[in-house]
Fold these 2 entries.
Entry 1:
Amino acid sequence: PQTHFAPSSQQFPSEFLWGTATASYQVEGAWNVDGRGVSIWDTFSHKPGQIPNNDNGDIADDEFHRYKSDIAMLRELGVKAYRFSVSWPRVMPNGTGAVNQKGLDYYKRLVAALHEAGIEPYCTLYHWDLPQVLQDKGGWQNRDTAEHLAAYAAVTSRAMADAGVHRFMTVNELRTFTENGYKTGTHAPGLKLDRKAMAQLNHYAVLGHGLSLAAVRANVPHDALVGLADNPNAATPVINDAEHIEAARIGFREENAQYLTAIMEGRYTDLYLRKLGADAPHFTDAEMKAIGAPVDFVGLNIYQPTYVTPDAASGYKVIPQGPTFPRMLSPWLTIGPECLYWAPTFTAQIWGVKSIYITENGASAEDRLDASGQVMDVDRVMYIRNYLSQLQRAIADGAPVRGYFVWSLMDNYEWNDGYSKRFGLVYVDFATQKRIPKLSARFYRSVVKENRVI
Ligand code: PNW
């Protein structure tokens, strides 16, 4: 019960968990150190012409060697939690079978240092660095990948639980690693599959979550919490009247039918299957049961709105965002702070979810240096400030949101944008690995300290 706050003061609940997030391939570097295997992102980024400046994650933020000083930065920020991910090929170089103890040891060191600093580790098991050997066997097109993910999740969650980790997420952003990786081809492995193949692959991805959820549960203490971090399309009403809100509620469920809705309901919606017709995926009742097994919390990565309006035929219609729609520096990152009101609100209302974390929110912005060498990322401050106001409003209206993680602690390897887009609260000079806290870091530190939007 989150009763100890005054809704009128922009205050967050007293036990609210403030954090920051990163992911293994984006920050670790050390890509061939201590027996780490090759991931699809190594292969993709090493192939010339895929990514601006041919940037890759070979070194990234070198967090593999600098985690101690990076954790000192977390302490400076005053955050209570750090969301990181484990690199599958660091732990299982061949994707299955033999465990690389030296790889696991890195995460044990990281977790021990977090505990020493009084920071709670939130561990994501799959943030897109699929072992290349598994891609060679079809990757997410192959049902076996879902089983292999679960086997890796069992080993890793057991080791992390032994190290004292109590919070686990199976996968990060189902839509991104399936669609960007296999439909548009902008992410690794860079394929462009048709609708039928995508429907089947999406099914294996949610199955990967479901099988991993069971595997983690079997290997961690009963009081550990296990969920996922997903990025549902954040259906948002253009106008806040009853009719538009209802259209957005329908949209939130249907736009995410093959991902979060399938996981929350253990079935695909009728509309989804009808739209696909002969391209619908093959699935069994047992699979749907595994996919729909209850999670302890739902993690939402929320960046941009999908505006929705009523439609007589299908109940809702998505309003396209034209080229002049306001955006942050990444072209996909349109600005609409209300989505951080509606996404947790609908998640709680539609499925009765009792525990929600915002596992990512943040933005690429211009990092201007002022005369004294300060990084004046004013746009990022405004973005986070406006989104957090909406989140506070959602909590005041009853959404059970327990915590919020800024993406990201520091600038890092932004996938197909390489190092050309920065999301950090802390600036990283990649030539020297020097870290410089930005204006947004100072802003976020005061939000955390005061427990309210300043
Ligand atoms: C998320 N889109 O990715 C990821 O979880 C992070 O690893 C990433 O760095 C962060 O957001 C910023 O991009 C996304 O095209 C990538 O809509 C692409 C999209 C959304 C999220």
Note: Residues 23, 26, 172-173, 176, 231, 301, 303, 332, 360, 407, 414, 423 surround 4-nitrophenyl beta-D-glucopyranoside (CB under 6 Å).
Entry 2:
Amino acid sequence: IRAHEATPKQCFSNLFPFGVASAAFQTEGAWNVSGKGESIWDRYTHEHPELVFDHNNADVATDSYHKYEDDVKIAKQLGVTFYRFSISWPRILPTGLRNKINEDGLKYYHNVIDALLRENIVPVVTMYHWDLPQSLQDLGGWTNPTIAEYYVDYARVLFENYGHKVNTWLTFNEPLSFCHDGYGGYDAPGSRSSGFEDYLCGHNVLRAHGMTFRMFQREFSHLKASVGITLDLSWLEPATTSADDQEAAETARQFRFGWFSHPILSKEGDYPRVMRESIDRNSKRQGFFRSRLPSFTPEEVDMIKNSYHFLGLNHYTTYLVSKGSGKISTKPSFDDDMGVKISQNPSWPKTNSTWLRVVPWGFRKTLNWVKNSFNNPLLIITENGVPFEAGLQDVKRVNYIEAYLRSLHDAIYKDGCNVFGYTYWSLMDNYEWMRGYSERFGLFEVDYKSSNLTRSARLSAAFYSTVARTKCIPDNFNYYNYDVTK
Ligand code: PNW
């Protein structure tokens, strides 16, 4: 596109599905209701309210456990093709193990799925969106290798009960986030050690994912269903054109995305070479007898390689990468192993998240990088979204969505990226992990002060609804005459 040309109307194919997403812990509430077990996020936010930005917990959240029919109604109002939500492991298996199945929990998700199907909305199910049963964390959580078997048992319960109604499954949401930030940072379960536990977590998540995919192929091949995994990739752009910064940016992509995508999507399988070499080398320099990054057996490499029908991709923002100092501390860390400097350009527009700036061109670059690195795999955008202040006239959110959709459109129709489906995060405002209720990503605003947690359509809901129904990015969207209350 040349700058002087007016923006042409951009349409996606007639079948291109638009959806919205949510996650169990962020919306359901009812944390100890009807037999649900405690999750690591229940425990963490109850024990450490001081670590949550607004000191709140998700005991009620948007009360979707009781108000799921309202949620389905507003999704219907949008005219979306699908709704991506997650199942809470401890609501189904209160102790994490399948010796005790919570019938009320099973029933709840049947109700959600049936309500969606009645309205012709396709359910897309994430099996794990970070809310691990606390009793499994007491055994070491994702650092304990046995958890992979327990996860397969849980996944089997889901296929057995919902397999005839759900045909799109995601095993995990963003292992980078819950391994790096959870087992190496300040997310639940909290106080772990980076450069160690994050790698153990990643290793067992990859094993659990591969084993689940093979179990699905062996036991449920009669179901017409697809199984994938959601990974997050912020675009990582070299800070300058220097060869050093370009190499640093590629190293960062391999650490942050290749960590999980290379074992699953690459021809060779296993961890990216740069990750293996850097962590082996640093471990040796720090006096360890063996590498802090565990190794797969050749059988595991084969099991994990190609264990997907499609890849889910979450994309929000872009970072700049420059060469690191080459120094490492005696205390191990993922960041030292990656060994680069990451920043953002202060001129990029800010949002209500410190980590999220508006950089639409990064979306197209991300998709092209995935296309070129892994032979153009089938992708669904499982999350893209932005937080702004409360209020229904959210022009800034409309602008974000429009700009990112144009970038996506270019990636598909100019560059040939194999993307089928886009998901806005989120249907409505919800509990944003360590940021509590302070960050609002919703197309619908939630009034946390009202007794029934009223959901109200924002301007962005009207905009996104137009996109979802017409499959086109409107070139004449009227920002001011929409009655967002209808
Ligand atoms: C996602 N980053 O996490 C999660 O899947 C959602 O549950 C969450 O509500 C949403 O983003 C908004 O925060 C991310 O630093 C966390 O690029 C961090 C990043 C991206 C996604």
Note: The first helix runs from residue 24 to 27.
